[in-house]
UniProtKB/TrEMBL annotation:
Biased composition (Acidic residues): 258-268
Record protein name field: Nucleotide-binding enzyme
Stored InterPro entries: NT_sf
Entry-linked SUPFAM superfamilies: Nucleotidyltransferase (SSF81301)
Annotated stretches, region: Disordered: 229-278
Record lineage: Bacteria, Pseudomonadati, Myxococcota, Polyangia, Polyangiales
Biased composition, class Low complexity, residue ranges: 239-254
Length: 278
């Protein structure tokens, strides 16, 4: 089947962007599509080929291409690994219950790949209480403070990277922000945040037999083997795309992209790459 039938250049750029995200750890749609366009178009007469904004795929198109890529590469094991990640997430949500934790991102939507981590939002009244709680749980963690400028304003985001059966990233918000929902750079819709009951319902719906076994035994069959498959693949850095975007002249776009849905000046989304509603 020809690429032209399914979008021509746009589909080819989406497929290459998906490959970059899956195989090379690029975790910003904006960065991946620019790199993909550059690689596919190359240069003509020593000058960069130009493309129209309409040639660039949407974040949603790249996400679907990425999901297809992951399914082809990982087969049936991917669904089993997704369930294992959801159980790790569920147990983390229960452990963090005093801080109104919510699951977001690829583990909630199912758009996982090798190296996917578990992304949680937490809403502590004060950060010290959260740190004390993490220590009481005997969790190994690192704290990261990231300052970003968006819309002419600086904002700091605190992240805790937790070493567990699968890597967990906690993004810290004030309690009042639980009522606010950042918009996804995938489709512009508010990000879906799942609490404990919602994740339990998700497991019961999408993994009926495995969920029933978990309820009966408290274990996930083959969890260690499923999650060890990711250990040889370094997890995508949560800020790689943000920090590298525009860092080198060679990655500059071949032409401006006005009106692109994932404009680099959009509101910061702490889950680059795999956010979005199911």
């Amino acid at each position: 089947m020809s690429a032209e039938r399914f979008g021509g250049l746009r589909a080819r750029i989406a497929a290459e962007a998906a490959r970059l995200m899956y195989e090379e750890g690029v975790d910003q749609y904006f960065t991946a599509k620019r790199m993909a366009a550059k690689r596919i178009l190359g240069q003509i007469d020593g000058r960069r080929a130009r493309y129209r904004p309409a040639d660039l795929p949407s974040n949603g198109e790249i996400r679907e291409a990425l999901l297809l890529f992951a399914e082809r590469a990982e087969g049936s094991q991917r669904a089993r690994r997704l369930f294992a990640l959801r159980i790790v997430a569920l147990e983390a949500l229960r452990a963090l219950a005093p801080f109104s934790p919510r699951l977001i991102g690829s583990v909630s939507t199912g758009h996982i790949r090798r190296g996917s981590d578990i992304d949680l939002h937490v809403f502590p009244a004060n950060e010290e209480a959260l740190e004390q709680h993490l220590r009481a749980l005997a969790w190994t963690f690192d704290r990261e403070l990231v300052t970003l400028q968006k819309g002419g304003q600086f904002r700091e985001y605190v992240h805790y990277h937790v070493a567990d059966a699968a890597p967990i990233e906690l993004t810290v918000y004030a309690p009042r922000e639980l009522r606010l929902r950042p918009r996804s750079s995938t489709d512009g819709k508010p990000i879906v945040r799942l609490g404990i009951a919602a994740v339990e319902a998700l497991c019961a719906r999408d993994h009926r037999e495995a969920w029933q076994r978990y309820l009966e035994t408290g274990e996930v069959e083959g969890m260690d083997a499923l999650l060890e498959a990711d250990e040889d693949e370094p997890p995508p850095g949560p800020f790689d795309g943000l920090l590298e975007d525009g860092a080198g002249a060679d990655d500059a776009p071949a032409c401006p992209e006005p009106g692109e849905e994932d404009d680099p000046d959009q509101d910061y989304d702490p889950l680059p790459g795999f956010e979005g509603a199911a």
